[in-house]
Amino acid sequence: MLKPEEFVHVIYDVKDHVATVTLNRPEIYNALNHRAYDELERSFLLAHDDPDVRVVVLTGADPGFCSGDDVRAIMAGDEREGSVHRLTRVKPIPTPAATAIMDCGKPIIAAVNGAAMGWGMDLSLMADIRIASDKAKFAELFVKRGLITDLGGLTRLPLVVGVQKAAELLFTGDVIDAAEAERIGLVLRTVPHAELMPAAYAMAGKIAANPPLAVQHLKEGLRKTTYGEHREIGSWIAHILGVLFQTEDHKEGVASFLEKRPASFKGR
Predict the structure, then answer these.
(1) What is the pTM of this model?
(2) Does domain 4-193+212-258 have CATH number 2.40.30.170?
(3) N or C end: fewer C-beta atoms under 10 angstroms in the chain?
Protein backbone atom coordinates (compact mmCIF):
# COMPACT_ATOMS: atom_id res chain seq x y z
CA MET A 1 0.00 0.00 0.00
CA LEU A 2 1.06 3.58 -0.57
CA LYS A 3 3.19 5.27 2.07
CA PRO A 4 2.75 9.00 2.85
CA GLU A 5 6.13 9.82 1.34
CA GLU A 6 4.88 8.31 -1.92
CA PHE A 7 1.76 10.49 -2.05
CA VAL A 8 1.44 12.87 -4.98
CA HIS A 9 -1.87 14.66 -4.39
CA VAL A 10 -2.28 14.48 -0.60
CA ILE A 11 0.00 15.72 2.18
CA TYR A 12 -0.20 13.62 5.36
CA ASP A 13 1.44 14.87 8.53
CA VAL A 14 1.20 14.02 12.23
CA LYS A 15 2.13 16.43 15.02
CA ASP A 16 1.02 16.65 18.65
CA HIS A 17 -1.45 13.76 18.21
CA VAL A 18 -3.16 15.54 15.28
CA ALA A 19 -3.00 14.15 11.75
CA THR A 20 -3.39 16.77 9.04
CA VAL A 21 -4.70 15.55 5.68
CA THR A 22 -4.28 18.21 2.99
CA LEU A 23 -5.56 17.76 -0.55
CA ASN A 24 -2.80 19.17 -2.72
CA ARG A 25 -3.90 19.91 -6.29
CA PRO A 26 -4.34 23.67 -5.81
CA GLU A 27 -4.12 24.48 -9.51
CA ILE A 28 -7.53 22.79 -10.01
CA TYR A 29 -8.99 23.56 -6.58
CA ASN A 30 -8.03 20.11 -5.28
CA ALA A 31 -10.25 18.20 -7.69
CA LEU A 32 -9.91 14.45 -7.22
CA ASN A 33 -8.62 11.99 -9.78
CA HIS A 34 -8.33 8.27 -9.06
CA ARG A 35 -4.90 8.58 -7.44
CA ALA A 36 -6.09 11.39 -5.18
CA TYR A 37 -9.02 9.24 -4.07
CA ASP A 38 -6.62 6.38 -3.33
CA GLU A 39 -4.29 8.63 -1.31
CA LEU A 40 -7.22 10.10 0.61
CA GLU A 41 -8.44 6.61 1.48
CA ARG A 42 -4.95 5.57 2.57
CA SER A 43 -4.55 8.69 4.75
CA PHE A 44 -7.63 7.88 6.79
CA LEU A 45 -6.69 4.22 7.11
CA LEU A 46 -3.34 5.37 8.50
CA ALA A 47 -4.95 7.80 10.92
CA HIS A 48 -7.40 5.18 12.12
CA ASP A 49 -4.66 2.62 12.80
CA ASP A 50 -2.09 4.98 14.36
CA PRO A 51 -2.37 5.02 18.18
CA ASP A 52 -0.50 8.34 18.24
CA VAL A 53 -3.27 10.04 16.23
CA ARG A 54 -6.17 11.33 18.32
CA VAL A 55 -7.76 13.85 15.91
CA VAL A 56 -7.68 14.41 12.15
CA VAL A 57 -7.82 17.86 10.51
CA LEU A 58 -8.89 17.69 6.87
CA THR A 59 -8.30 20.65 4.55
CA GLY A 60 -7.18 21.66 1.07
CA ALA A 61 -4.28 23.65 -0.30
CA ASP A 62 -5.45 27.21 -1.00
CA PRO A 63 -7.43 28.50 -2.79
CA GLY A 64 -9.88 25.58 -2.60
CA PHE A 65 -11.03 22.86 -0.23
CA CYS A 66 -12.12 20.31 -2.83
CA SER A 67 -13.95 21.03 -6.08
CA GLY A 68 -15.12 17.43 -6.37
CA ASP A 69 -14.24 15.04 -9.15
CA ASP A 70 -11.65 16.02 -11.72
CA VAL A 71 -14.21 16.07 -14.53
CA ARG A 72 -11.69 15.58 -17.34
CA ALA A 73 -10.00 12.65 -15.64
CA ILE A 74 -12.95 10.90 -14.03
CA MET A 75 -16.04 11.77 -16.04
CA ALA A 76 -14.81 12.83 -19.46
CA GLY A 77 -12.77 9.76 -20.22
CA ASP A 78 -9.14 10.84 -19.92
CA GLU A 79 -7.34 7.84 -21.37
CA ARG A 80 -4.61 7.98 -18.73
CA GLU A 81 -7.27 7.28 -16.10
CA GLY A 82 -9.18 4.68 -18.05
CA SER A 83 -12.26 6.46 -16.77
CA VAL A 84 -14.98 5.46 -19.22
CA HIS A 85 -14.32 1.78 -18.78
CA ARG A 86 -14.02 2.09 -15.02
CA LEU A 87 -17.18 4.13 -14.53
CA THR A 88 -19.44 2.04 -16.76
CA ARG A 89 -18.57 -0.98 -14.64
CA VAL A 90 -19.03 0.58 -11.19
CA LYS A 91 -19.08 -2.15 -8.56
CA PRO A 92 -22.03 -2.05 -6.14
CA ILE A 93 -19.86 -1.20 -3.12
CA PRO A 94 -19.47 2.11 -1.29
CA THR A 95 -16.77 4.52 -2.47
CA PRO A 96 -13.60 3.20 -0.75
CA ALA A 97 -12.41 6.67 0.28
CA ALA A 98 -15.81 7.51 1.77
CA THR A 99 -15.84 4.21 3.66
CA ALA A 100 -12.36 4.83 5.08
CA ILE A 101 -13.32 8.32 6.24
CA MET A 102 -16.64 7.33 7.76
CA ASP A 103 -15.08 4.27 9.44
CA CYS A 104 -12.22 6.32 10.91
CA GLY A 105 -12.40 6.03 14.68
CA LYS A 106 -10.75 9.39 15.33
CA PRO A 107 -12.67 12.69 15.40
CA ILE A 108 -12.42 14.56 12.09
CA ILE A 109 -12.46 18.34 11.77
CA ALA A 110 -12.93 19.72 8.25
CA ALA A 111 -11.25 23.11 7.84
CA VAL A 112 -13.08 24.28 4.73
CA ASN A 113 -10.84 26.94 3.24
CA GLY A 114 -12.56 27.48 -0.12
CA ALA A 115 -14.89 25.84 -2.60
CA ALA A 116 -16.39 22.52 -1.43
CA MET A 117 -18.28 21.36 -4.50
CA GLY A 118 -19.88 18.03 -5.38
CA TRP A 119 -17.85 15.29 -3.74
CA GLY A 120 -15.95 18.07 -2.00
CA MET A 121 -19.11 19.06 -0.13
CA ASP A 122 -19.76 15.39 0.59
CA LEU A 123 -16.20 15.13 1.89
CA SER A 124 -16.78 17.97 4.34
CA LEU A 125 -19.98 16.27 5.51
CA MET A 126 -18.08 13.09 6.36
CA ALA A 127 -16.23 15.05 9.04
CA ASP A 128 -17.62 15.30 12.57
CA ILE A 129 -17.13 19.07 12.78
CA ARG A 130 -16.85 21.69 10.04
CA ILE A 131 -15.21 25.10 10.46
CA ALA A 132 -15.33 27.36 7.41
CA SER A 133 -13.25 30.23 6.12
CA ASP A 134 -15.25 33.24 5.03
CA LYS A 135 -14.08 32.32 1.53
CA ALA A 136 -15.78 28.91 1.60
CA LYS A 137 -18.61 27.95 -0.74
CA PHE A 138 -20.68 24.75 -0.83
CA ALA A 139 -22.77 22.98 -3.48
CA GLU A 140 -24.09 19.49 -4.12
CA LEU A 141 -23.49 19.69 -7.85
CA PHE A 142 -24.17 16.04 -8.70
CA VAL A 143 -27.61 16.76 -10.14
CA LYS A 144 -25.98 19.14 -12.65
CA ARG A 145 -24.00 16.16 -14.01
CA GLY A 146 -26.99 13.83 -14.12
CA LEU A 147 -25.78 11.94 -11.04
CA ILE A 148 -26.66 11.42 -7.38
CA THR A 149 -24.66 12.43 -4.35
CA ASP A 150 -22.45 10.05 -2.37
CA LEU A 151 -22.76 9.07 1.31
CA GLY A 152 -22.14 12.55 2.71
CA GLY A 153 -25.07 14.12 0.92
CA LEU A 154 -27.57 11.33 1.44
CA THR A 155 -26.75 10.19 4.98
CA ARG A 156 -25.29 13.29 6.67
CA LEU A 157 -26.73 16.38 4.99
CA PRO A 158 -30.37 15.80 6.10
CA LEU A 159 -29.19 15.23 9.67
CA VAL A 160 -27.17 18.44 9.66
CA VAL A 161 -29.53 20.90 7.93
CA GLY A 162 -32.89 19.10 8.00
CA VAL A 163 -34.63 17.10 5.28
CA GLN A 164 -36.33 20.05 3.58
CA LYS A 165 -33.15 22.14 3.24
CA ALA A 166 -31.18 19.06 2.18
CA ALA A 167 -33.76 18.40 -0.52
CA GLU A 168 -33.40 21.95 -1.81
CA LEU A 169 -29.60 21.73 -1.95
CA LEU A 170 -29.62 18.26 -3.55
CA PHE A 171 -32.38 18.92 -6.10
CA THR A 172 -31.14 22.36 -7.24
CA GLY A 173 -27.36 22.07 -6.97
CA ASP A 174 -27.37 25.68 -5.72
CA VAL A 175 -24.16 27.23 -4.40
CA ILE A 176 -24.23 28.74 -0.91
CA ASP A 177 -21.61 30.87 0.79
CA ALA A 178 -20.02 30.44 4.21
CA ALA A 179 -22.46 32.79 5.95
CA GLU A 180 -25.44 30.81 4.69
CA ALA A 181 -23.70 27.54 5.56
CA GLU A 182 -23.35 28.73 9.15
CA ARG A 183 -26.92 30.02 9.26
CA ILE A 184 -28.38 26.63 8.29
CA GLY A 185 -26.01 24.69 10.56
CA LEU A 186 -23.91 23.13 7.81
CA VAL A 187 -20.78 24.48 9.52
CA LEU A 188 -20.17 25.02 13.22
CA ARG A 189 -18.73 28.47 12.66
CA THR A 190 -17.23 30.75 10.03
CA VAL A 191 -13.97 32.60 10.67
CA PRO A 192 -11.80 35.00 8.67
CA HIS A 193 -9.66 33.06 6.22
CA ALA A 194 -6.38 33.75 8.03
CA GLU A 195 -7.86 32.38 11.27
CA LEU A 196 -9.16 29.11 9.83
CA MET A 197 -6.26 26.76 10.51
CA PRO A 198 -5.50 28.22 13.96
CA ALA A 199 -9.18 27.71 14.85
CA ALA A 200 -9.16 24.14 13.55
CA TYR A 201 -5.96 23.29 15.42
CA ALA A 202 -7.22 24.93 18.60
CA MET A 203 -10.26 22.68 18.55
CA ALA A 204 -8.16 19.65 17.58
CA GLY A 205 -5.80 20.33 20.49
CA LYS A 206 -8.68 20.63 22.93
CA ILE A 207 -10.07 17.27 21.77
CA ALA A 208 -6.63 15.61 21.69
CA ALA A 209 -6.05 16.61 25.33
CA ASN A 210 -8.98 14.45 26.44
CA PRO A 211 -8.70 10.69 27.12
CA PRO A 212 -8.40 9.22 23.61
CA LEU A 213 -10.28 5.99 24.26
CA ALA A 214 -13.25 7.84 25.74
CA VAL A 215 -13.32 10.22 22.75
CA GLN A 216 -13.16 7.33 20.29
CA HIS A 217 -16.05 5.56 22.02
CA LEU A 218 -18.04 8.78 21.99
CA LYS A 219 -17.53 8.97 18.24
CA GLU A 220 -18.55 5.33 17.92
CA GLY A 221 -21.66 6.09 19.96
CA LEU A 222 -22.60 8.99 17.67
CA ARG A 223 -22.19 6.73 14.67
CA LYS A 224 -24.43 4.05 16.18
CA THR A 225 -27.14 6.36 17.48
CA THR A 226 -27.17 9.07 14.83
CA TYR A 227 -25.49 8.17 11.56
CA GLY A 228 -26.53 4.54 11.15
CA GLU A 229 -24.99 1.91 8.90
CA HIS A 230 -23.59 3.48 5.75
CA ARG A 231 -22.55 0.39 3.79
CA GLU A 232 -26.02 -0.58 2.61
CA ILE A 233 -26.86 2.89 1.31
CA GLY A 234 -23.33 3.14 -0.14
CA SER A 235 -23.90 -0.03 -2.15
CA TRP A 236 -27.22 1.35 -3.43
CA ILE A 237 -25.52 4.63 -4.42
CA ALA A 238 -22.84 2.76 -6.34
CA HIS A 239 -25.47 0.71 -8.17
CA ILE A 240 -27.45 3.80 -9.19
CA LEU A 241 -24.29 5.63 -10.28
CA GLY A 242 -23.40 2.66 -12.48
CA VAL A 243 -26.72 3.23 -14.27
CA LEU A 244 -26.57 7.04 -14.38
CA PHE A 245 -22.99 7.17 -15.72
CA GLN A 246 -24.32 5.62 -18.93
CA THR A 247 -27.21 8.04 -19.51
CA GLU A 248 -27.33 10.75 -22.17
CA ASP A 249 -28.11 13.32 -19.47
CA HIS A 250 -24.87 12.54 -17.64
CA LYS A 251 -22.88 12.90 -20.85
CA GLU A 252 -24.64 16.20 -21.55
CA GLY A 253 -23.94 17.42 -18.01
CA VAL A 254 -20.23 16.74 -18.46
CA ALA A 255 -20.08 18.15 -21.99
CA SER A 256 -21.90 21.37 -21.00
CA PHE A 257 -19.49 21.85 -18.09
CA LEU A 258 -16.42 21.37 -20.24
CA GLU A 259 -17.84 23.54 -23.03
CA LYS A 260 -19.01 26.20 -20.54
CA ARG A 261 -22.59 26.32 -21.84
CA PRO A 262 -26.07 25.69 -20.41
CA ALA A 263 -27.07 22.04 -20.34
CA SER A 264 -30.12 20.60 -22.10
CA PHE A 265 -31.36 17.46 -20.36
CA LYS A 266 -33.69 14.96 -22.05
CA GLY A 267 -34.49 12.48 -19.30
CA ARG A 268 -32.71 9.61 -20.93
Answers:
(1) 0.90
(2) no
(3) C
